């Protein structure tokens, strides 16, 4: 396609009008000021073009672009809010069950920084405190889990100075509040310059991004992890599926946080998919083969629905569906809706409703 040269807003306005877009020039100029051209026009135009070579619109108004663009942003906002709820539940569950196992007394407050309380995926030594019994067959160790598998010692909680950085970088974590004259730090935990300072896991965990939280989960020993999984309705023996599902929620969260068009979402190819998930959720990976990869929004929302209620999303989908038909007419509106739904992973509106209304999946 080549690198596109800079164009003035006037040139962009005239180009859109020349292609047949129906718009008041002043309103179009305002839209070009308020919105990113690449996101709103380039990102959506293939849904609305009547002809691609040359590009030509037939019966398409500026409002049609705005409807789809604003739908995308509202949908993104709702999905991100749901993902935040899942993240909050995960952090609450992790901090509770890990603290119950390792940090239940004052002097053990900082045991979450002790590597001996975790499992190193690469450690195949049965006599080691961080032994992983399935090290040789660790899932996706050469794909998305490569850094997790290879660099256990680099995890943020294991780095010297973690506690000092915590109290320096986060104003709400005041070292004067988190100190106790009775506290004596045990061996192998991180310490503050003030040896009487210790920050509980349920406070520290709030500073971890979703990606670091996922890494935390990978390193948990099985008894603790299975208690966390149980909080989310997972039975024993489903560790690989649980962590792989969180891979895709991480991808979706990153897309939402970067404000990219959610309708164009797909998981990166490096994120491989567990085959049991494909069967259980009836997923349709873009790339098949020995290690399938590439999920669009529809399939990723199936996975999200296992963790949270996503029914609020239906009203936004229904609203854009009706708006497109009302604005463009039945034929053009239905065509646009089908293209939009297909882009998101499934052009069948009934199947979307089933997923958004809480269709059940069994692992």
TrEMBL record:
InterPro entries: Abi_system_AbiD/AbiF-like. It comes from the Bacteria. This is Abi-like family protein. It comes from Streptococcus infantis SPAR10.
């Amino acid at each position: 396609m080549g690198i596109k040269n800079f164009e003035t807003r006037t040139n962009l306005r005239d180009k859109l009008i020349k292609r047949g877009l129906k718009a008041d020039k002043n309103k179009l100029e305002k839209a070009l000021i308020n919105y990113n051209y690449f996101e709103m026009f380039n990102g959506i135009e293939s849904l609305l073009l009547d002809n691609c070579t040359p590009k030509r619109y037939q019966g398409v108004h500026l409002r049609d672009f705005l409807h789809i663009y604003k739908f995308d942003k509202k949908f993104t906002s709702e999905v991100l809010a749901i993902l935040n709820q899942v993240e909050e539940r995960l952090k609450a569950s992790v901090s509770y069950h890990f603290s119950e196992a390792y940090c239940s007394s004052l002097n053990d407050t900082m045991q979450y920084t002790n590597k001996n309380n975790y499992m190193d995926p690469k450690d195949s030594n049965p006599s080691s405190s961080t032994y992983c019994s399935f090290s040789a067959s660790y899932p996706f160790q050469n794909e998305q889990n490569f850094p997790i598998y290879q660099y256990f010692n680099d995890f943020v909680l294991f780095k010297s100075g973690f506690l000092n950085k915590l109290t320096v970088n986060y104003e709400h974590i005041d070292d004067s509040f988190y100190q106790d004259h009775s506290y004596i730090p045990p061996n192998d935990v991180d310490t503050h310059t003030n040896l009487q300072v210790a920050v509980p896991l349920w406070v520290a965990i709030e500073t971890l991004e979703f990606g670091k939280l996922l890494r935390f989960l990978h390193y948990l020993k099985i008894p603790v992890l299975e208690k966390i999984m149980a909080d989310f309705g997972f039975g024993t023996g489903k560790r690989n599926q649980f962590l792989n599902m969180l891979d895709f929620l991480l991808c979706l969260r990153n897309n939402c946080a970067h404000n990219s068009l959610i309708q164009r979402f797909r998981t990166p190819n490096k994120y491989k998919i567990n085959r049991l998930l494909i069967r259980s959720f009836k997923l349709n990976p873009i790339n098949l083969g020995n290690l399938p990869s590439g999920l669009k929004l529809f399939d990723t929302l199936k996975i999200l629905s296992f963790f949270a209620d996503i029914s609020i999303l239906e009203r936004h989908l229904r609203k854009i569906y009706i708006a497109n038909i009302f604005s463009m007419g039945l034929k053009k509106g239905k065509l646009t809706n089908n293209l939009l739904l297909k882009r998101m992973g499934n052009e069948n509106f009934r199947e979307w409703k089933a997923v958004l209304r809480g269709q059940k999946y069994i692992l």
